[in-house]
């Protein structure tokens, strides 16, 4: 089983939040002062977001960085459990 | 007030865990197959760890990545509260 990468879960969570707010890549990238292409790559888990840009994106989404990390931590915990169960089977 | 960066909290938390286990940089970097200099920079918050290397370091420390992110999320939540209180004062 391919291990789950933090950047993929960060990207997925950022995209879910943007969708939940009904906002476009253009809107959020503008508010966060990052390029649209960069945000899109981060959302798809193709690029590691630097700590500074992650803070900007969260600010643009009005989501505390702590909440993002907690959500990602929870998703990872679920993935880790799944991997452990698969190994035990 | 200087904003707290995720990589600084990740580094601090990794170092705390390594100290708690009484292990050296050499030991953990060897187990994680990362260079000693890289691990040292990550611990000092000077370098962003890629998702792959973060997973390796956590594995070397036998700490689930999810636990690391939860701890970092909690530290960030405390820092965000402090910042909010400072702004309100």
Give a nutshell description of this structure.
The first copy, chain A, has 89 residues and is an all-alpha fold. Chain A has helices at 6-20, 25-32, 36-43, 51-61, 65-88.
Describe this structure in words.
The structure is a homodimer of 89-residue chains. Chain A is mainly α and 89 residues long. Chain A has a single domain (6-88), classed as 434 Repressor (Amino-terminal Domain), CATH 1.10.260. Chain A is 74% helix and 0% strand. Chain A has five helices and no strands. The first copy, chain A, has helices at residues 6-20, 25-32, 36-43, 51-61, 65-88. The mean pLDDT of chain A is 95. The A-B interface holds A 3, 5-8, 48, 50-52, 54-55, 64-67, 69-70, 72-74, 76-77, 79-80 and B 3, 5-8, 48, 50-52, 54-55, 64-67, 69-70, 72-74, 76-77, 79-80.
């Amino acid at each position: 089983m391919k291990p789950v990468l933090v950047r993929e879960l960060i990207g997925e969570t950022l995209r879910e939040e943007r969708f939940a707010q009904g906002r476009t890549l253009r809107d959020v990238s503008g508010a966060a002062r990052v390029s649209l292409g960069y945000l899109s790559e981060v959302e798809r888990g193709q690029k590691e977001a630097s700590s500074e840009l992650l803070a900007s994106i969260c600010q643009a989404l009005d989501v505390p960085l702590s909440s993002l990390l907690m959500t990602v931590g929870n998703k990872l915990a679920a993935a880790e459990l799944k991997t452990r169960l698969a190994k035990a089977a």
